[in-house]
Amino acid sequence: MAGKQDVERGENCVGEEIRAPLIAAANEAKHSKKDDRCMLYLSTFVAVCGSYAFGSCAGYSSPTQFAIREDVNLSLAEYSLFGSILTFGAMIGAITSGKIADYIGRKGAMIVSSGFCAAGWLSIYFAESALLLDIGRLAAGYGMGVFSYVVPVFIAEIAPKDSRGALTTINPLMTCTGVSVSFIIGTLLTWRALALVGIVPCAVLLVGLSIIPESPRWLAKQGKQKEFELSLRRLRGKDADVSVEAAEIRDYIETLERLPKAKLLDLFQKRYLRSVTIGVGLMVCQQFGGINGVGFYTSSIFESAGFPADLGTTIYAILQVIITALGAAFIDRAGRKPLLVISGSGLVLGCLLAGSSFFVKEYGIAPGAAPALAVSGLLVYTGAFSAGMGAVPWVVMSEIFPINIVGVAGSLATLVNWFGAWACSYTFNFLMSWSSYGTFILYGSVNALAIVFVIKVVPETKGRTLEQIQAAINSS
Asked: What pTM value is reported for the model?
């Protein structure tokens, strides 16, 4: 009996001796896995500095409108051109971004974009006339257009499958943060000082790009096998086994190279037409609902409605960041289509409230209620947009295009998006001069049509593979 107990004790001791190093090794592996992703997270942070710079450019014109018009003596038409020419530059950037990113790499494209943004900010800072202001705004817009393409592509290409969704949502969140910070600090700084602040994320990005690796998928596509494996190992950790992922990437690149190169006219073939209609249609819904007109001139809208512009802009900016973060967290739970429908409904309500504020003020029905209606309308509007219509169209666009047309189709959808942004930002002041409440009724009508479009045309892509999405689109 004693011998049996000794044997059991011996087995337990041996078991403990075996388990102890295994547990320690498992803990060490778990800890090292977190450490292994430091370069991945650093690379993502550096890239989204471009998203922040994007947001800083977009948010600049709202808090600076009155000061710039007074200091440089700009007319309403001249300031409308200054505000909207940003999106014209972004259209040019969107058209050329794919070629630049393919030719000189994702990092190279971000360097070019940062250079244009920094030059644009300096031109605005030193401007004493409308010409230098417009040149600076155009240059910054070009940088924005390149950033809008290359940042999400870079993040998607460096991220592993298990964290790609979480990392890609940082892109729209940082863009929104850039807009909001510009709104808030624009109430405290002069317009020239705010232009200098816009250079900061560009400088951080340029420094960071000297540290982080290039996209391994781009390197593989260029046939740079040694650099490809080195980049992938840096992103996954020096001790990580990257052989399986490297093989998958090589297979993907080989499949991509075998597919026919799509051209713009190919998008109008019957087999691609539904995907293109969904992708481009969502961009039309997003932009022609008035978001850039409202966003670029938030301060003047609050001022016109009789609400303190500084306070309204600050509340608007903070709400935008909070709702965008919540929307990013729920996009894979609630589904794309429900978020778009809820968002569109909120946009219609926000437009009705904001339009009502100008209506009662103009006709003297209840002038005391105008400021409350205005702030309620704009906050509902920005909250609804941030919850769905802001980010979801970009997510759906990345899911619905077949792999062989995604580059051309994505460029077309991005171009339409920026054209809509330009059209809304340029016409907004003229529409407000025509009819303040009529402007918001017009935007509300577009958002109502957007709800119909989403319900009738847009498929739900939540929880489906890309192949299942394509099958569903083709079958309908």
From this structure: 0.74
Q: What is each CA distance from 35 to 67, 232, 246, in whole angstroms?
A: 48, 15, 20
d(CA 56, CA 124): 13
Two tokens at 265?
A: 């006219």
What band does 331 get if pLDDT is binned at 50, 70 and 90? low
How far, in Å, CA of 439 to CA of 290, rounded? 9
Show the tokens assigned to 391. 């980010």
Per-residue HEC secondary structure of the chain comes to CHHHHHHHHHHHHHHHHHHHHHHHHHHHHHHHHHHHCHHHHHHHHHHHHHHHHHHHHHHCHHHHHHHHHHHHCCCHHHHHHHHHHHHHHHHHHHHHHHHHHHHHHHHHHHHHHHHHHHHHHHHHHHCCCHHHHHHHHHHHHHHHHHHHHHHHHHHHHHCCCCCHHHHHCHHHHHHHHHHHHHHHHCCCCCHHHHHHHCHHHHHHHHHHHCCCCCCHHHHHHCCCHHHHHHHHHHHHCCCCCCHHHHHHHHHHHHHHHHCCCCCHHHHHCHHHHHHHHHHHHHHHHHHHCCHHHHHHCHHHHHHHHCCCHHHHHHHHHHHHHHHHHHHHHHHHHHCHHHHHHHHHHHHHHHHHHHHHHHHHHHHCCCHHHHHHHHHHHHHHHHHHHHHHHCCHHHHHHHHHCCCCCHHHHHHHHHHHHHHHHHHHHHHHHHHHHHCHHHHHHHHHHHHHHHHHHHHHHCCCCCCCCHHHHHHHHHHC
* Burial category of 338 from C-beta neighbours within 10 Å (exposed 0-12, middle 13-18, buried 19 and up): middle
Exposed, middle or buried by CB within 10 Å (0-12, 13-18, 19+), for 7?
Answer: exposed
| Structure-token match 């002038």, residue found | 367
pLDDT higher at 24 or 195: 195
pLDDT score of 201 = 96
Structural contact between residues 54 and 177, judged by C-beta atoms closer than 8 angstroms: no
DSSP state of 401: S
Please state the rounded mean pLDDT for residues 305-309: 76
Question: ∠ CA 215-95-288 to the nearest 5 degrees?
Answer: 115
What are the φ/ψ torsions at residue 239 (nearest 5 degrees)?
Answer: -100, 0
Whether pLDDT at 64 is above 70: yes
Q: 286: pLDDT confidence band, cut at 50, 70 and 90?
A: very high
Q: CB–CB of 272/409 below 8 Å? A: yes
pLDDT of 33 strictly over 50: no
Cα dihedral sign, 340-341-342-348 = positive
Confidence band, pLDDT 50/70/90 cuts, at residue 195: very high
